[in-house]
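Handout, section B. The chain below has 86 residues.
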Amino acid sequence: MSNHVIDYTGKRRTRQQAIEAMCRDCIYDELDEGTWRMQVERCELTDCPLYQYRPLSRSKSTDKADGASVQQHYDPIAVEVGGNLL
């Protein structure tokens, strides 16, 4: 199964490239300040189905590694080494 989307011009894009193109087409105004990415980051259309997937700079995105702690999904294994239980 391909991870590409065919856009209206017939060009193959990844899912993220298609989302970026949609956001850029929707909100970018060359007369407004900032690049298209900066303008997309300031987007306030929270009811847009792509809002949570819009491109954000790494410094502004909430990465799972930086967010909530990882929940243990298995029971720890006790190992005896040299008479000590680890």
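Note. DSSP finds two helices and four strands in the chain. Compare this with the example in section A.
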